[in-house]
Amino acid sequence: MTNAWTDIKNTDLVVVMGGNAAEAHPCGFKWVTEAKAHRGAKLIVVDPRYTRTASVSDYYAPIRQGTDIAFLNGVMKYCIDNGKVQWEYMKAFTNASYIVKDGFAYKDGLFTGYDPEKRDYDKSSWDYVLGEDGFVTTDPTLAHPRCVWNLLKDHLAPYTPEMVERICGTPKEKFLKVAEMISECSTPTKTMTSMYALGWTQHSSGSQNIRAMAMLQLILGNIGVRGGGMNALRGHSNIQGLTDLGLMSHLLTGYLTMPSEKDETFETYMSTRLFKPLRPGQTSYWQNYKKFMVSFQKAMWGDFARADNDWAFNYLSKLDVPSYDVLRMFELMYDGKVNGYICQGFNPILAFPNRDKNTKALSNLKWLVTMDPLETETARFWENHGDFNPVDTAAIQTEVFQLPTTCFAEEEGSLTNSGRWLQWHWAGGTPPGEAKHDTWIIAQIFLRLRDLYRKEGGAFPDPVVNLSWDYADPNEPTPEELAKEINGRALTDLMDPADPTKMLVPAGKQVLNFSQLRDDGSTMSGCWIYSGCFNEQGNNMARRDNHDPDETGAYLGWTFAWPLNRRTLYNRASCDLQGKAWDPTRKIIEWDGTKWSGYDVPDIAPNAKPEDVGPFIMNQEGTARLFTRGLMRDGPFPAHMEPFESPVANVFNPKMRGNPVARVFQTDAAQLGQSDEFPYAATSYRLTEHFHFWTKHNRVNAALQPEFFVEISEELASEKGIEKGGWVRVWSKRGSVKAKALVTKRIRPLICDGKTVHVVGIPLHWGFTGAAKKGFGPNSLVPFVGDANIETPESKAFLVNIEPTTPPQEGIA
Amino acid sequence: MMDSPRTAVSNPPVQPMETNLTPRDLVRRSATAELPPPERQLTPVAKLIDVSKCIGCKACQSACVEWNDTHPEIEENVGVYDNPHDLTENMFTLMRFTEWINPENDNLEWLIRKDGCMHCADPGCLKACPAPGAIVQYSNGIVDFIHENCIGCGYCVKGCPFNIPRISKVDHRAYKCTLCSDRVAVGQGPACAKACPTQAIVFGTKEDMKSHAEERITDLKSRGYENAGLYDPPGVGGTHVMYVLHHADKPHIYANLPDDPKISGIVQAWKGVTKYVGLAAMGVAAAGAVLHGIFGKANKVQPEDEENAEKLVDAAEGRKEDA
Amino acid sequence: MSISKDVLPGDAIHRGPPVTVNRYGPAKRINHWITATCLILLLLSGLALFHPSLFFLTGLFGGGQNTRMLHPWIGVVLFVSFFILFAQLWRANLPNRVDVQWVSQINDVVAGHEEKLPEIGKYNAGQKFIFWGMAFFIIVLIGSGLMIWDQYFGESTPILLRRIAVLVHSVSAVLIIMLFILHVYAAIWTRGTLSAMTRGTVTGGWAWRHHRKWLKELAGRGRIDPAE
């Protein structure tokens, strides 16, 4: 989230698209009801299903899953055509006026430079025209035909309301009503917030879905302001923390990136990461990359990371592929190239696409370790449960170790919520039975491994043997110790660079925040963006001061938000070029002639003059990008792409399937279904009664939503002879499930490109363990393809067929 | 007047509160003719359920189960979102989902109503109950079942205009929402209201809830719900659980919420005229019989009757012997 | 001589003196008393639930819960028991012309002027009225009772029907209780009647006075045992 949950109460318009906030985030959704009740805010829901969020909306428009880009491009076009743009904001704070190279173009659904063999673009033409000074050439009048603004207008030209209706199935008048309501938020005093979740990310063009809305928000002037922003609602209480701490194969902590094979030395690694400003006077904060990187290396290996060994850069593994994401790992397992798998707090058998493939992949392992407080299907993947898990147990040789861990209520630590708040919590109970904290388990594995490496050596024992493990009890680092390590401390006395006689931080003391981190090895910090969470003032994550001066929703005394306790990112953009708030009633910060101050921590250097320094300090441009150059694999503008399995062809290029640059493994390509065999558009989602695969173990939740079902329209039900509450079989090219039929008016057939499209909704909370009735998950049916940029599986749009059937068999067949 | 808790939100300001909802706070007690008047008046409370804010998340159901430590069964899916399928002795409140096409604009509306005891000012259950003290009404308006006095006859089910009480098959006692009387008595609001993430369920004094409802109705009218209104049905003297409805002109679209609930005329007849006239009639008949017995002349067999009988028998015997 | 409905198996005269007449055999008497006991228990348990002032009667059954539990089962026993009796007696209780005469002279009945009444068979119109009244109300009570027997049939009928049932049940109960009072009182007021249901016999004089036609028929058919 660019903003915070509590900030949503400040909005005038909530657009829930690519999510179902009321259903999946009912507690956070309270802020929407606050905005509605106290500001008269309106709520728009755009979704294939009339959801629980839609049930409290002011306006609902249906859409075919996987066509959000067309819809959003249509809205952008509507706003531009009707002059509903916050011109001053857009001109000053985006790259609209930047001139783009001549080679760049878009035709037949593809940008310049497409290579179908590689399934990739040559992105060299996707760039700005640079002047001799190294800065981008711009045309502030927006007259230049090659400026981003005019290229954008050209790009959006096909997305007329008629085209939106043709692609999305959204009736034209409903689309126009939504577009009109959104366009009203182009004034400086009206803001819109976008609340989205996996309904946008779980697509092969997921990143572009989000980009499209971000661009719309930018031209409406809604980024960095109160009640605005791009607000990703994270699906777990700490999934934000997962990405922040780099639990992804291509990331280190704090969005520092893993080196690739090309980064042979620390110097080459740094050369591609120290982004220089592209416009004069801009901050380009990543110029501090080295400070964070060296401090990270010092946190990892302490004294073994020294200037003379490039801060132990070679201790880091180097990626030979763009990423070892879950799809690639399971592909490797499926190919028999993985021996062991430590599965910590995850249930891939029900979460990852193509369950059949996952089961075979796990069956190819020598060993599997699961760490979970609850029984998971993954730990029991070898167990036959009749139709619910029809495996041949005797044929599976994988040795499974189930390690019971504690649940959140039995442990101390912090959870990072969607609004980037690190909220400390304390244990409310003692762990039952043999359950152990994850930290204890990991410590034990580490200590034993280290002993082995010490004894036996090996090809390269150094990164393990030399790992910094400086805890009071090496057997179990405490949450406080880990939090302090993440915050970082001075390793030698830190003197003020402006006044070398003045000591900032004595050696051994916690740094105040990442502004004190250095690239000379004198500081360490486990995760720079979290720095400030636990400094000499104490554990800031444990703060519980809920005062909120003037009720802005900032709550600066409540826990700690990264970065620097800032609640609204890009909040400099809430002010005009003179530094005055666009909307005086919704001031966040203001320039008083000498410095920035206000209700929130300014997202700009305190003394940066408003007319000189742009608000998007993480970007080289200092502005936000309507045109992303080569930063995204599938194009600098969002363009309509169909899902890999779609009931209709791409209207821009009927031969193009899915995202043209998304990775598809060979075995999976053969398992993509066609719409003649699988005519119905399926989507998956969560229900509010359950939390993933946890709560089916809880008898209360199980009673509230006891059994797996699929949702279909009355029209499809009567076409197929399906009865309400009867059993149906739903199958795709990859698998088959049996479910109860929930026949509803909330799903209606859509007309897309002249064709009737029936939607089949498949919720995801059932398996073969737990208190609820045994059932299936949608992942049995989902294709094994991911987003082109980040490999999030395309679980929200795929093709199935459906028929009435008999109940599944529980026992061994 | 003694104050009642005024909110159910998390972490309410905690004020020491004198214990209330004791037997001396009763204004009505089932099957009890002469109840001494309550020693004090508690501020009437109410729960307000804003259907237009409800997202149907069932947190209220969950909180209700947790607080009351009930154990609803894990049933099947029968093609609807309502689970369990009905109120039970283990499920005192239930989200009822209705898919309704608004005939005026052909738009779908998903109406989600939290069903449960309405805590009528004129409670039909209490009127119907034959067991003294099994159902009570406190001066703050809460209608509560006192389970140790309940005999499990199910009369309350017949008396209730909203079809709420359920009889346990295990302990044969009637169960329903207590409005968390055990929480309210110590200054807390009901568990469901506390758990409600959107504050679609709010709790406080009935007066506050009515004025809060007015604000909500104004907001709904501004959004085009011309018939938005408060459901506080006068037929049962008003209720201490009220709804804000977007379509208050037709409550029945919300999963058959009665348009004009009142205690059934049949129940009134049963618990009114039948009870009194019946008892009187039986009394008169019994007394009449006794009086007639004392003062009337008994119908006695006379000696001549016996003689006549003997003669008859002799004659018949004679015939028999003759034959 | 046509077969009379009035003479039932087991009816017989014993020569005196004094003459006695078998009116009810042991099976019928047991049957009657089971029915009567049930009716009294139902009356007590029912009244306990009918009016708060009588709730104390639940104490007789071990409390309210037990009263609620027992009442319907006793009703079932009564129903079965009564209809075994009914099957044997219904023909003798079919109305005839004499009953009309009897009813029209009800004042003479109440005044005890039986000499003015026509000769009566095994049952007079009053007894028949009680018989049929009992049968009718027992059917109504068992029917409505099942509908409100919450433990087993709580959800089997719509709420409106259950509400009607509970009203019908209580009104019927009041009426059957009044019928019961009439029955008991008549049996006491008409001296010598009780022995019919205790010893099974009545005196010849009783039969001559109240059911002369019946007695004559018995005598006429030679249903006379030798003197003991």
Structure write-up:
- The complex is a heterotrimer of chains A (813), B (323) and C (228).
- By secondary structure, chain A is an alpha/beta fold.
- Helix content of chain A is 22%, strand content 15%.
- Among the domains of chain A are: 231 residues, Dimethylsulfoxide Reductase, domain 2 (3-Layer(aba) Sandwich); 139 residues, Barwin-like endoglucanases, CATH 2.40.40.
- In chain A, β28 and β29 form a beta hairpin.
- The mean pLDDT of chain A is 96.
- With 323 residues, chain B is of the alpha+beta class.
- Chain B has 2 domains: 240 residues, Alpha-Beta Plaits, CATH 3.30.70; 52 residues, no CATH class.
- In chain B, 30% of the residues lie in helices and 15% in strands.
- Chain B is elongated, with a radius of gyration of 29 Å.
- By secondary structure, chain C is mostly helical.
- Chain C has a domain of 155 residues: Transmembrane di-heme cytochromes, Chain C (Fumarate Reductase Cytochrome B subunit), CATH 1.20.950.20.
- Chain C has a 4-stranded mixed β-sheet.
- Chain C is elongated and about 60 Å long.
- The mean pLDDT of chain C is 89.
- At the B-C interface, α3, α7 and α8 of B face α1, α2, α7, α9 and α10 of C.
Q: How many separate helices of chain C? A: 10
Principal-axis shape of chain C: elongated
- What is the beta-strand fraction of chain C? under 5%
Instruction: Name the largest protein-protein interface in this structure.
Output: B-C, 57 and 61 residues
Proportion of helical residues of chain C: 55-70%
On the 0-100 scale, what is the average pLDDT of chain C? 89
Domain module count of chain B: 2
The CATH architecture term of the largest domain in chain B is 2-Layer Sandwich
CATH architecture of the domain at 27-181 in chain C: Up-down Bundle
Query: Can you count the beta strands of chain B?
Result: 11
CATH superfamily of the domain at 27-181 in chain C: Transmembrane di-heme cytochromes, Chain C
Largest sheet of chain C: 4 strands, mixed
Rounded to an integer in angstroms, the radius of gyration calculated over CA atoms of chain B is 29 Å
What is the CATH class designation of the largest domain in chain B? Alpha Beta
Query: How much helix, percentage-wise, in residues of chain B?
Result: 25-40%
CATH level-3 fold name of the largest domain in chain B: Alpha-Beta Plaits
Major sheet: arrangement of strands of chain B: 9-2-11-10
What is the general shape of chain B?
A: elongated
Top CATH class of the domain at 27-181 in chain C: Mainly Alpha
Query: Oligomeric state of the chains?
Result: heterotrimer
